[in-house]
Amino acid sequence: MCLATVKQDGKVLQFVQNQTEKMCLALNKMVSDDWLSHCSELKQIKLDLPKLQTVGNGWLYQCSELKQIELKLPKLQTVGNGWLTYCSKLEEIELKLPDLHTVGNYWLSHCSKLKQIELKLPDLHKVGNYWLSYCSKLKQIELKLPDLHKVGNYWLSYCSKLKQIELKLPALQTVGDNWLVECSKLEEIELKLPELHTIGNDWLHECPQLKKIIKIDDNQNYQIPIEYKNKTNRNIFTRFIYGW
């Protein structure tokens, strides 16, 4: 097993891979691009960095054998593009990052074995393009993110096994183009998006199995069944959302 452990001791970190390779890094509050990227033998990682606030692009990018992650980063606020992208052996992930505010493009994209995800991110405000796209083993997802305001293009797209979605995002206002595109097994969506006012082009495009949208309001619960028989019916969904 390949284990990477990073411990903070003042400003000096020690990185150990296969218990033989050692690398010292100078760190105060920021790590630059390509930190721990392309670690093709890395299977497990544990990070305990109480001062870290910012990580650049390519963090844990294309770690094709990575299966277990434990992150204790209480001050982390910003992560760049390509975080946990192409981690093709990752099956489940739990993230508890109380100060995380912004994440760039391709976060958890192309994680082809990801089946379970739990995000406890109370301060998350903005996520870029291709978040949770191409996760071909993901069958259901529940997201409860109280401060999320904006998500970019291709969010939860090309998730070919995804059947059920529950989104409780009370602050979400804007979603980009191609949201939930080509989720060919998607049958049911449960939404609580009271502030949503802008959706880009082609959301729910090529979702032929979609039968039901459940809209949850603060004062009442009700459901609107909609048969999705052809691509033009996505206009019905758009009117449904904008009519809130």
Could you describe the 3D structure shown?
With 244 residues, this protein is mainly β. It folds into two domains: 28-124, no CATH class; 130-244. It is built from one helix and 20 strands. It has one helix at residues 234-242; strands at 3-9, 12-17, 21-26, 30-31, 44-48, 54-55, 68-72, 78-79, 92-96, 102-103, 116-120, 126-127, 140-144, 150-151, 164-168, 174-175, 188-192, 198-199, 212-216, 221-225. It has an eight-stranded parallel beta sheet, with no helix packed on it. A five-stranded mixed beta sheet has the order 3-2-1-5-7, with no helix packed on it. It has a five-stranded mixed beta sheet with strand order 13-15-17-19-20, with no helix packed on it. It is globular and about 45 Å long. Residues 7-27 and 218-234 have low confidence and may be disordered.
Compact description:
This protein is mainly beta. It has one helix spanning 234-242; strands at 3-9, 12-17, 21-26, 30-31, 44-48, 54-55, 68-72, 78-79, 92-96, 102-103, 116-120, 126-127, 140-144, 150-151, 164-168, 174-175, 188-192, 198-199, 212-216, 221-225. Helices cover 4% and strands 33% of the residues.
Shape: globular
The H-and-E topology, N to C, reads as EEEEEEEEEEEEEEEEEEEEH
Beta-strand fraction estimate? 25-35%
Number of structural domains: 2
Summing up helix and strand content along with how strands pair, one would put the structural category as mainly beta
Tell me roughly what share of residues is in helical segments: under 10%
Distance separating the two termini? 51 Å
pLDDT averaged over residues? 81
Radius of gyration: 19 Å
Number of strands: 20
Summarize the biggest pleated sheet. 8 strands, parallel
Low-confidence stretches: 7-27, 218-234
Helix segment count?
1
Going across the biggest sheet, name each strand in turn. Answer: 4-6-8-10-12-14-16-18
